[in-house]
Amino acid sequence: MAKDTLEVISHLEWTLPRQLHVVGVSMGGMIAQELALMIPDRIASLTLASTAARLVNTVGYWENLRNRINMVGNVFNLVSSRYCRYYETLASNAFISEEKVADKGMPAVVPPDDQLDDMKNRMFSQRWLDAPDDYGEFPTNGDRFAAMELEKRQDVEGFTRKGFVCQAIAAGWHYKSPQQLKELANKVGRERIQILHGTLDKMITLPHGETLAKELGEKEGVTKIIVDGRGHVLHIEERDMYIKALESIVEKAENLK
């Protein structure tokens, strides 16, 4: 995917030194790391949000196992959605319950509302989910996300099983060693890099962001922003802060030219 990105930006003739301000969120942050290693001299600034150099188990054996099995459960959700357009069909989607994993028992069928609650809680902080909808069209932000997720599951062409599986594999296999991150930081410039992570991120937990910042060199100039009480999707939960962080690193990088 980094090579795909490189082809696009090269086709657009964005090829000058220090021309690209790159922002990567979650798996996009992993792609951004690959891209920065490929063309470090073309990177003006690099923002890595809610991402990791490599995924490790920071939550304990059973919680980690449940997370991985539920990720596979999402594939079944996408498969089932091929054969229906309506909400009630989602009830047949298989998801793995925490109790069944803990008991080493058989998977349990979880109602669609519970599936959505699980997904919401992994991606967002409860404070943001319970707050009134930012756009005023739903009772809460959580209700808006649930509606968007249900609509997405019925888009069988835009969100396919193959796409989901490939994304899961790509994220799971992404690996950047401390030596590779040092090389990236040396070539891009630590003063051009910033890391953002939420303390309540359950998708890619905070220790991943801490490790990324440390190995890139936060003590040598890399900016680290830890957002207290927020989850995985900082650009939605803390939009104003996020925009200011991007503006700050872009201005800083432009002044370095």
Task: Tell me about this structure.
With 257 residues, this protein is α/β, with parallel strands linked by helices. The protein has helices spanning 2-11, 27-38, 61-81, 98-102, 112-123, 126-130, 141-153, 161-173, 178-188, 206-216, 234-237, 239-256; strands at 20-25, 43-49, 193-198, 223-227. It has twelve helices and four strands. α1 crosses α2 and α3 runs antiparallel to α8. The longest helix has 21 residues, at 61-81. It starts with a helix and ends with a helix.
Provide a concise account of the structure shown.
By secondary structure, the protein is α/β, with parallel strands linked by helices. The chain has twelve helices and four strands, in the order H-E-H-E-H-H-H-H-H-H-H-E-H-E-H-H. Strand 1, helix 2 (27-38) and strand 2 form a beta-alpha-beta unit.
Strand order of the largest sheet: 1-2-3-4
**Sequence of secondary-structure elements:** HEHEHHHHHHHEHEHH
Average pLDDT figure = 84
Helical coverage, percent range = 40-55%
| Unreliably modeled segments | 71-98
Structural class by helix and strand composition: alpha/beta
> How many angstroms does the end-to-end distance come to?
28 Å
Instruction: Quote the beta fraction.
Output: 5-15%
Number of strands: 4
Overall radius of gyration: 20 Å
Main sheet record: 4 strands, parallel
Number of helical elements: 12
Q: Overall 3D geometry?
A: globular
